[in-house]
Amino acid sequence: MTWVLVGVGLCAFVLFSLLFVACCYSPWFRFSTKPDVSVLLVVRDQAPIIEGLVKGLLSFFRTSPYAWELVVVDESSRDETLEILRRLLRKHSFTLIAAGAGEDPLQAGLSACRGGTAYYMRLTGKVELKAAVAVVRCLAAGGRLPECGVYHPCGVIPGTSVR
């Protein structure tokens, strides 16, 4: 009887240890609320594409095994971009910041990002929806694009630039 209890205890210890290791090192078993990657969009006057862009990115994030977060900074839009983002915020989970006058929107967004790495894009001109989603997918695959930046605690990753 004693050996049975020792065997059951040993099996429970081994199973608990394996579960602990899986939770610590596997992206599929994360209990942490801190995301692996942040995507920061600094937008101005993007009403025609912003809803599709946010929904497309959040859909992409759900298919990834990694923990992502989306941070959107509105840079004093004169169209209905901010209203669309506020409406989306009621249905979807992301961070929205309305940058005030004189405030650096990129810095405000980066300070809100919690991921170990942050991809950021300034969308202040005419932007195609498919192109913006393709940029994030390319960056997620390890690609580098001159129109985007990758912020890491060590600084901007070489090969990227900020516009």
Automatic annotation (TrEMBL):
Pfam family, one: Glycos_transf_2
Protein name: Dolichyl-phosphate beta-D-mannosyltransferase
GO MF annotation terms: dolichyl-phosphate beta-D-mannosyltransferase activity
Keyword Phosphoprotein found: no
UniProt-listed Enzyme Commission number(s): 2.4.1.83
Keywords carried by this UniProt record: Glycosyltransferase, Transferase
Annotated organism of origin: Thermacetogenium phaeum (strain ATCC BAA-254 / DSM 26808 / PB)
Stretches assigned to the Glycosyltransferase 2-like domain: 38-92
InterPro entries: Glyco_trans_2-like, Nucleotide-diphossugar_trans
Source species, domain of life: Bacteria
